[in-house]
Every structure is written in structure tokens, then in C-alpha cells.
Task: inverse folding
């Protein structure tokens, strides 16, 4: 599979990969199908599996899961504000959520592999960025999540991006809490370099990382160069197979859903403890892994089943996944503090499975 194909798939949420079994393609591509419009409100385009504790509405549940992942980052020490990178933001709903928080990011960067997503996200940001976030510097990138250091200089995961002749940047970051900026006449955008640089205080990935496993660990390594030293936090949601082996048809089905070759599925950590150990071995600290299955699978499958027809079949498939013991987990990790003379981060850029 070519890189671009792989990457396009890499950003599609699980539901989209699940649905081809039952739903025709034209329906697939528009999350509007699931985002029931609320009277008097904007049509949303959420595309995640939702957190269903207090609702049975798809857009509200999807919003709740996105918010829950932000809250999870805050519990881990992300103080709000700062520099945020959202990878796999789809149509951009989570970007608006970051902007609508009580302390909007100073810099908000989005990365998606689909230019249609970038365009759509930009258009809702243009229309709906809340007043309180008017001075947030927003930068959207259309690129693979796999940063290629030899090709892709203007990539948010390029840790060296800011070191190449952008002078304004140093000024802008001279003091964490006193960002120096001037407003332009028009939109009140910051006039820092066009590429507001890392480091990021938060890298956020909602329902988009599943497609990296088992390359998850090397992928996470590529985030380290752009995470703030000692305090940069990464949060994401992931899916773990049941601890016991899968039957053949199931592993085939699931390997299709996750677009991971079947043998690779067995490489996944069998328990949350093992998962945690794996990240710690790679030098992540303050690793927390929570099982969110209960709030996700059931509500999601019931919502789909309630729609009848082909969605019902997708819902039944989700129901089976839950019964098999698949887990929906949230992961949080911090970058270990490194001294200036320690260059291992950079050495790991683009590292492949060893
Ligand atoms: C933004 O946040 C406020 C308060 O936190 C909330 O009342 C409002 O509904 C939010 N707006 C959107 C579009 O989510
Ligand atoms: C599956 O595992 C093989 C062997 O470890 C690896 O080379 C390959 O990249 C993996 N595939 C994916 C999609 O991660």
C-alpha cells in the first residue's frame, strides 16, 4: 500500500472503516448522516464513537468524548492555553472545542491527511471561532502523520522547523506567559511567523490512532521532538483487542477494520499494565491508561442499532466487538525531561520498527 493510501486510511475513524460492510460509500463519507441536527443549532460533523453517559444523541456524545479527552489531559497537568496540536481532527469539531475552552490555546495546530477536511475545518473556524479565542493563532496542515524528515520540512512534527531562520519565534516564546504580539488590522490574528513553532504543551488525538498499531510506539516517538520538555503531554484514545486470542474470522474482520495485517494484531499489549510498561520502556513518564469501554461501546452500538437498516448492522458489529472483550482506552503520557546535551529525541525521528 502506498504511503498516501495508508495515511488516508490512518485518519479515518473506526466507524468509517467498519461501515463499508453495510453502507454505501456515498453515505460513508459524510458524518452528517450520524450528526442529527439539533433545532436552531449548527449542523455538526463529529466523527468519533462518543461518550454516552449522559446522552443518547450522537453529536452530543461525540462532543462529550472529545471534551473528556481534553479533561483527561488537564487531569494530567495540561493547564489550558499554550500550544496545542490536534492530529486527525476530521471536519474540525474538536478544534472548535479547544477554542471554546475557558483558556483557549495560544497556538492551535491541526493536522489531517485529507485536504477536504482541512478546508471544511477552516471554514467552520472562520465562522464559529468564539470571541475569547480570537487571538489564538491557528494553523492547519494537510499532511501525513508520518513525518518524513528528508521531505517534509513544513510539518508540525518537524522539531527543527522553528530553528530555520524564523526570528520572530524566539521573541514570541521568550516568556511563556507573556506572549508578545501585535494584532493585524483585520482578523486579530497574531503576526508571529506563519509557522508558529513547537514545542507543544499538548498533542491530542481522538479516535484516530488505531491505524498505527503496531507501529504505535515508533509513531509516538516522532512526537517527542515537538513536545515541551518535561511537561508536554500527549493524550489519545486507542482500542485494545481482548487478552485471549481471536478466532480466525474475527481477527480477519478486525484486521480489516483497523487496516492492520492480521498477524500484527497479536502484537498488541494484552493488558493495560503491559501497555503502560511498553510506553515507560520507551521513555514516557506519568503514563496513565484508563479503560473507557463502558461509556463508549454500548451507547454507540445502541445508537446505531436504533437507526435501523444498515446502521443497525454496523451497530450489531460494534456490539459483538464489545462482547468479545475489546477495550476502548484513553492514554496519557508525558515527555521525560531531557537535558540540552541529550539528543536521543532527534535520533529517533522517523525511526522504524526495530
Ligand atoms: C462554549 O462553551 C460555553 C461555556 O463553557 C458553552 O455554554 C457553549 O455551549 C459552548 N459553545 C459551543 C459551540 O460548544
Ligand atoms: C505489521 O508488522 C510487520 C512486522 O513487524 C511490520 O513490518 C509492518 O509494518 C506492520 N504493519 C503495519 C500496518 O503496521
Result:
Amino acid at each position: 500500500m502506498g504511503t498516501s493510501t495508508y495515511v488516508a486510511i490512518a485518519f479515518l475513524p473506526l466507524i468509517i472503516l467498519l461501515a463499508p460492510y453495510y453502507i454505501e460509500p456515498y453515505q460513508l463519507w459524510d458524518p452528517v448522516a450520524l450528526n442529527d441536527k439539533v433545532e436552531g443549532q449548527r449542523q455538526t460533523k463529529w466523527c468519533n464513537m462518543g461518550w454516552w453517559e449522559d446522552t443518547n444523541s450522537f453529536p452530543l456524545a461525540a462532543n462529550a468524548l472529545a471534551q473528556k479527552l481534553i479533561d483527561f489531559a488537564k487531569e494530567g497537568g495540561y493547564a489550558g492555553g499554550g500550544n496545542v496540536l490536534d492530529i486527525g481532527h476530521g471536519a474540525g469539531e474538536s478544534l472548535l472545542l479547544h477554542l471554546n475552552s475557558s483558556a483557549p490555546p495560544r497556538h492551535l495546530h491541526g493536522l489531517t491527511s485529507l485536504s477536504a477536511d482541512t478546508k471544511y475545518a477552516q471554514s467552520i473556524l472562520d465562522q464559529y471561532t468564539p470571541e475569547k479565542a480570537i487571538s489564538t493563532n491557528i494553523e492547519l496542515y494537510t499532511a501525513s502523520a508520518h513525518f518524513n524528515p528528508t521531505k517534509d520540512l513544513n510539518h508540525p512534527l518537524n522539531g527543527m522547523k522553528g530553528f530555520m531562520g524564523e526570528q520572530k519565534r524566539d521573541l514570541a516564546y521568550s516568556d511563556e506567559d507573556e506572549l508578545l504580539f501585535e494584532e493585524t488590522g483585520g482578523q486579530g490574528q497574531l503576526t508571529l511567523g506563519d509557522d508558529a513553532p513547537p514545542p507543544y504543551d499538548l498533542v491530542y488525538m481522538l479516535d484516530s490512532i488505531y491505524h498505527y498499531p503496531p507501529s504505535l510506539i515508533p509513531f509516538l516517538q516522532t512526537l517527542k521532538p515537538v513536545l515541551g520538555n518535561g511537561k508536554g503531554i500527549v493524550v489519545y484514545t486507542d482500542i485494545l483487542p481482548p487478552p485471549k486470542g481471536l478466532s480466525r474470522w474475527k481477527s480477519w474482520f478486525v484486521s480489516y477494520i483497523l487496516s492492520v495485517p492480521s498477524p500484527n494484531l497479536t502484537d498488541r499489549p494484552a493488558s493495560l499494565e503491559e501497555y503502560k510498561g511498553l510506553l515507560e520502556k520507551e521513555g514516557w513518564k506519568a503514563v496513565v491508561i484508563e479503560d473507557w469501554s463502558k461509556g463508549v461501546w454500548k451507547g454507540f452500538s445502541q445508537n446505531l442499532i436504533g437507526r435501523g437498516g444498515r446502521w443497525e448492522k454496523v451497530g450489531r458489529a460494534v456490539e459483538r466487538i464489545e462482547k468479545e472483550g475489546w477495550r476502548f482506552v484513553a492514554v496519557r503520557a508525558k515527555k521525560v525531561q531531557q537535558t540540552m546535551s541529550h539528543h536521543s529525541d532527534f535520533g529517533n525521528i522517523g525511526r522504524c520498527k526495530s
Summary: Residues 58-75 form the longest helix (18 residues). The beta strands are 83-87, 107-112, 137-142, 202-205, 233-240, 284-291, 327-335.
